[in-house]
Design goal:
By secondary structure, the protein is of the alpha/beta class. It has helices at about 20-30, 45-60, 75-85, 95-110, 130-145, 170-180, 195-200, 220-235, 245-250, 255-270, 275-300, 305-315, 325-330, 335-345, 365-370; strands at about 35-40, 60-70, 110-115, 120-125, 150-160, 185-190, 215, 240, 275, 350-355, 355-360. The strands form four sheets. Strands 2-5-6-1-7 form a five-stranded parallel β-sheet, with helices on both faces. A two-stranded antiparallel ribbon has the order 3-4.
């Protein structure tokens, strides 16, 4: 098995570091604190959540649920996903609780379908209006309270900021009221839009104000990642020159997905001797594989936006985006056009802001742009 996992969580054996972050999240859960985890995309947030849930579930004293709501656009979508995962908890329950589960399903009458390949059940609820949506959500949370009466439950809701896009009812208030009523359930809220998440949980006018512990995920340390990569290469009998692993981490900027992907490609290349030149060849192969997608990005942007994102990549991040020296160096038009371009690129999630510096979101795309 390729030890550098790029999709889904497998086991602690293939998970790098995050020891402090794992301990902090578990401590919050064990002490009845809900927690909000934010990070930019591709930093390993979802992997960390699954790692934490794995650690919690192994105790056999906690049931865990993971729910990704990134593709939901309405309360009805959320209810369908939430109801489905609630009924997928695999632990056995007492006869009383089994009876309550049966009564619950009969009372809300969901449509149950099964995946043709896996046999996994999926629920869909007929939500005709806002009041029906509210009542169904209330029912789901009451069912959750019943299920948690015998064992603690931890629920991770990924891309939680999506609830701000649901039209109609004040879903934040509705969910906050239901969550407050639970006695033996804790939540991990997470998302890749730090600004939106912060607004949900730190704005005094919002229902979730100061209701969770806040945590932001940064890059894994160079030392930890270097040790992890070195040990996995050694298991694969791959010999690296001394400068190879530092170059891997520098080229990927220590963003988890890109580190994993590059190392995955190195292992799959079946090369057993890796030096700087071999590594550069693999860099080139990755960029060539993705080049068609990168040209599609160009079709989405105006010529000025394309010049701007290329300039940000070539600078490896920009602070004074409207500074005259930056504009002159990259032949950009004027400060107001640059500011509009920045807003457009942020909205398209092609760049992100860390502190006062703007970076290209996709590390490989950024490396490709550097060569333009």
């Amino acid at each position: 098995m390729n030890p550098f996992i790029i999709k889904n969580y497998v086991s602690p054996e293939f998970f790098c570091d995050r020891e402090k972050e794992t301990k902090r999240i578990i401590s919050a859960i064990n002490n009845q604190r809900n927690l909000t985890l934010s990070s930019i995309r591709k930093m390993g947030k979802t992997g960390l959540i699954h790692h934490v849930l794995n650690q919690l579930h192994k105790t056999n004293e906690i049931d865990t649920i993971y729910l990704d709501i990134y593709d939901t656009t309405s309360l009805s979508d959320f209810i369908n996903k939430f109801g489905t995962v609630l009924l997928q908890i695999k632990e056995t329950f007492s006869e009383k609780l089994k009876r309550k589960t049966s009564e619950f399903i009969q009372s809300i009458r969901p449509t149950i379908t099964y995946d043709n390949l896996t046999g996994t059940p999926s629920l869909s609820f007929y939500v005709d209006n806002e009041q029906m949506g509210k009542n169904t959500l209330d029912d789901l949370f009451r069912f959750l309270q019943n299920r948690s009466s015998e064992k603690k439950i931890v629920i991770a809701i990924d891309e939680f900021q999506q609830i701000t896009n649901y039209a109609g009812l004040n879903v934040e208030a509705l969910m906050r009221n239901n969550i407050q009523s639970l006695q033996n359930v804790n939540f991990i809220f997470s998302g890749s839009d730090k600004h939106l998440l912060a607004n949900i949980f730190t704005n005094a006018k919002r229902p979730f104000y100061q209701s969770t512990e806040l945590m932001h995920l940064e890059e894994i340390s160079t030392e930890s990642y270097q040790n992890f990569i070195d040990s996995k290469f050694e298991e694969q009998k791959i010999i690296c020159k001394n400068d190879v692993i530092p170059l891997i981490l520098e080229w990927t900027k220590r963003h988890t997905f890109y580190v994993q992907y590059l190392c995955n490609k190195i292992v799959s290349s079946e090369r057993k001797q890796i030096d700087k030149e071999v590594l550069k060849q693999i860099f080139h192969e990755i960029l060539q594989e993705n080049e068609a997608y990168y040209f599609e990005y160009r079709n989405l942007l105006t010529s000025q936006q394309w010049k701007l994102i290329t300039a940000i990549a070539k600078e490896s991040g920009v602070n004074k985006i409207s500074g005259s020296s930056f504009i002159r160096k990259h032949n950009l038009s004027n400060p107001s056009t640059v500011r509009r371009g920045i807003n457009a690129l942020l909205e398209k999630e092609l760049i992100y802001k860390k502190g006062e510096i703007f970076y290209v979101y996709d590390v490989f795309f950024s490396r490709w742009l550097e060569r333009r």
